[in-house]
């Protein structure tokens, strides 16, 4: 077993004068606390935290982190309290251990709402001290190294969790060595036959290629000497998982995979990086499309290097990475390479600002409707590569790969996103949904009359954009529900022949513990309170004893459409919706709200899912009656049209609708540029057949890019 002196010696290789007594104290404390606990392998449990500490030492982590690794399971698996650790080892180490403990409780397969707050606290602590995640990654690495002793079902679950969450986290904070090993260990467990096949082929290939790698290395060293660039060069075969990943992405077999040899060239400075790159490109045939400059545009984990693929020495296709010694340190150890983690002092502020993405995870957690949504969105935040674009003033903005112009607008400021009306990329007008490419110059023109649309959610990927749009949509929904609540309240007054003043209204809402009447209306509209409760409040206020006359009859009649030709509709008022506009022939469902009425939705309506989840609603099966198709009654439908803006195009669109006997009742131009426009159309049709023909004819117009139902 690893001894205290082993740990002290390991730390002493990179830290001057480590606190030997504190390390011994942590060792003895954890040994006593874990006592006779046994791991699945039969080994003493205490061997695990010692192995974790060894991994942390291999990363050259500071003394506090190593001690945190020794103690990381004491809170979770023994009777140790946080106060006990604080008293013996100080508040800093206690915070680290507490943070790791919370992360250890985070299991992807069993996340529940009660764990949300703990995980949020973990992320907040990790945002200020990333060492919490480094310890957890070391913990996961040792668990994966010994996973063969666990039950098969647990091995599968843990391996999938490792591949989907922990390996990407290791890459996200730049610890490539842990990322590679985690991927291979999980890959071996999840796909043992594929892993063994690739491993066997690699072993055979290495026996054949060992001499080739040596010869290519010598040839590159000779080129460097010719260029008078001092450097070190290493060559290797790629890992089994990275090879399998390339095979999947390119949809090719192992035999077709040509660039499985990678060479790393480490030089003294950035100028030599580009000089070496130029020399390689002058002497060897470059593979098109494979050059990446991560020095001028680093990855989101601070990784910097030049990547290129060439047909190199011996006519072999090889991948080459060129970097400085400092870049190599960051590439190998990520955040562990930062100088602030090599001392026993406090973490510098820089380490906090570097972890903005963790704070984004906190925001995802707060805004997600459930843990499944959080996991899906958090993967985007953890895994996303970056693109770099430029503002008109020359400021560089980094965004996740696949981000749209609207994502860019929200990254500048929430108000810029909310009021984005026009966009230009490299001076040319584009739709807000346009995906940004590396190097694009992006300009946003705002209009205070512009506001977020439901459709915007479908073409943004950043957390900030999704959050702000959702917030705006929630505000609109709240306004709608307040209107429904006020309508119910007014109907209640009318049915019961009650007249009240503004002061009475304030008194009633205050007596029900609402700050404003609007708050009470919202509670009515969302069925948090009933009109009987409102009547009770009125009776107390006026010292009367009025009784409800007709339950449910007070819903305001102006929202009702009692004669809709639909089978299965109950005898309740029809509530207005703005999310979709059903026409005869659409698949429809009804959402019935207690004491309010029913909403009619198209089955594919994006809002319907949230309504289905309401605890105060139930779903009704509906269908159109024969009368809906016989009486030729006009029904309102909404379309969104994206088209080239040229004289005469608007009239051509109107002509298509007219030719199919449709009737445009409202037309509004949303986004508009020199050669682009977005139209919001409201038209009357008799059924889905007529609407489908109009859609088909509009899409056939050469200048029309897109037509969708709004």
Secondary structure category: alpha+beta
Q: Judging by the overall fold, what is the CATH architecture of the largest domain?
A: Orthogonal Bundle
What is the residue-averaged pLDDT? Answer: 80
CATH class of the largest domain: Mainly Alpha
CATH superfamily of the largest domain: Hypothetical protein af1432
Share in helix: 40-55%
SS strand fraction: 15-25%
Distance between the termini: 67 Å
How many E-type strands?
20
- Indicate the overall shape: globular
Describe the structure.
The chain is α+β, with helices and mostly antiparallel strands and 710 residues long. The protein folds into 6 domains: 4-188, Hypothetical protein af1432, CATH 1.10.3210; 193-337, Beta Polymerase, domain 2, CATH 3.30.460; 384-461, Roll (Ubiquitin-like (UB roll)); 470-542, no CATH class; 560-630, no CATH class; 635-709, ACT domain (Alpha-Beta Plaits). Helices cover 48% and strands 15% of the residues. The protein is built from 28 helices and 20 strands. The strands form 6 sheets. Strands 1, 2, 3, 4, 5 and 6 form a 6-stranded mixed β-sheet that branches. The chain has a 4-stranded antiparallel β-sheet with strand order 18-19-17-20, with helices on one face. The protein has a 3-stranded antiparallel β-sheet with strand order 10-9-11. A hairpin with a 5-residue loop joins strand 5 and strand 6 (317-324). It starts with a helix and ends with a strand. The model is unreliable at 105-119, 339-354 and 550-562 (pLDDT under 50).
């Amino acid at each position: 077993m690893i001894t205290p002196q082993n740990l002290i010696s390991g730390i002493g290789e990179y830290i001057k004068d480590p606190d030997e007594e504190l390390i011994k104290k942590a060792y003895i404390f954890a040994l006593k606390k874990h006592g006779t606990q046994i791991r699945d392998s039969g080994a003493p449990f205490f061997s695990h935290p010692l192995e974790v500490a060894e991994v942390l030492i291999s990363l050259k982590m500071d003394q506090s982190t190593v001690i945190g690794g020794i103690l990381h399971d004491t809170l979770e698996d023994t009777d140790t309290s946080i106060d006990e650790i604080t008293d013996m080892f100080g508040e800093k180490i206690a915070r680290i251990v507490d943070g790791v403990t919370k992360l250890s409780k985070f299991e992807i397969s069993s996340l529940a709402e009660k764990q949300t707050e703990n995980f949020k606290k973990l992320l907040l602590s990790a945002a200020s001290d990333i060492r919490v995640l480094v310890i957890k990654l070391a913990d996961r690495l040792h668990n994966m190294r010994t996973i063969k002793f666990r039950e098969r079902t647990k091995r599968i679950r843990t391996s999938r969790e490792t591949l989907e969450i922990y390996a990407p986290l290791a890459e996200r904070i730049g610890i490539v060595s842990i990322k590679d090993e985690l991927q291979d260990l999980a890959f071996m467990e999840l796909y043992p036959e594929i892993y063994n096949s690739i491993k066997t082929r690699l072993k055979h290939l290495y026996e054949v290629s060992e001499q080739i790698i040596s010869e290519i290395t010598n040839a590159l060293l000779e080129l460097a000497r010719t260029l008078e660039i001092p450097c070190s060069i290493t060559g290797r075969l790629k890992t089994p998982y990275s090879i399998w990943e390339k095979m999947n992405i390119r949809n090719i077999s192992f035999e077709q995979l040509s660039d499985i040899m990678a060479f790393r060239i480490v030089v003294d400075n950035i100028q030599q990086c580009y000089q070496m790159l130029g020399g390689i490109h002058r002497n060897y045939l470059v593979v098109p499309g494979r050059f990446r400059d991560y020095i001028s545009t680093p990855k989101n984990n601070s990784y910097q290097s030049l990547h290129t693929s060439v047909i190199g020495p011996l006519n072999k296709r090889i991948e080459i990475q060129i970097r400085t010694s400092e870049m190599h340190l960051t590439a190998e150890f990520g955040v562990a390479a930062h100088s602030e983690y090599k001392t026993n002092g406090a973490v510098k502020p820089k380490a906090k600002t570097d972890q903005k993405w963790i704070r984004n995870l906190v925001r995802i957690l707060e805004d997600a409707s459930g843990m499944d949504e959080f996991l899906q969105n958090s993967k985007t935040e953890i895994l996303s590569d970056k693109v770099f674009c430029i503002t008109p003033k020359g400021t560089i903005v980094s965004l996740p790969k696949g981000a749209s112009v609207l994502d860019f607008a929200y990254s500048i400021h929430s108000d810029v996103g909310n009021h984005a009306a026009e966009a230009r990329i490299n001076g040319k007008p584009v739709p807000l949904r346009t995906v940004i490419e590396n190097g694009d110059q992006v300009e946003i023109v705002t209009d205070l009359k512009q506001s977020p649309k439901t459709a915007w959610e479908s073409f943004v990927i950043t957390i900030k954009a999704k959050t702000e749009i959702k917030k705006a949509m929630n505000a609109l929904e709240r306004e709608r529900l307040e209107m429904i609540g006020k309508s119910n309240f007014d109907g209640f007054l009318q049915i019961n022949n009650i007249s009240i003043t503004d002061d009475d209204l304030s008194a009633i809402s205050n007596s029900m513990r609402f700050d404003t009447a609007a708050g009470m209306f919202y509670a009515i509209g969302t069925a948090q309170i009933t009109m009987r409760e409102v009547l009770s409040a009125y009776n107390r206020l006026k010292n009367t004893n009025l009784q409800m006359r007709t339950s449910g009859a007070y819903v305001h009649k102006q929202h009702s459409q009692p004669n809709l030709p639909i089978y299965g509709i109950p005898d309740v008022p029809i509530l207005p919706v703005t999310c979709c506009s059903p026409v005869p022939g659409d698949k429809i469902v009804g959402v019935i709200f207690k004491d309010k009425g029913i909403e009619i939705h198209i089955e594919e309506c994006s809002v319907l899912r949230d309504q289905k989840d309401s605890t105060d609603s139930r779903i009704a099966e509906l269908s159109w009656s024969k009368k809906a198709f016989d009486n030729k009654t006009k029904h309102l439908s909404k379309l969104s049209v994206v088209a080239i803006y040229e004289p005469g195009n608007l009239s051509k669109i109107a002509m298509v609708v007219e030719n199919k006997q449709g009737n445009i009742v409202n037309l509004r131009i949303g986004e508009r540029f020199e050669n682009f426009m977005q139209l919001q159309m409201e038209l009357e049709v008799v059924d889905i057949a007529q609407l489908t023909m109009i859609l088909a004819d509009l899409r056939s117009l050469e200048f029309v890019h897109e037509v969708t139902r709004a």
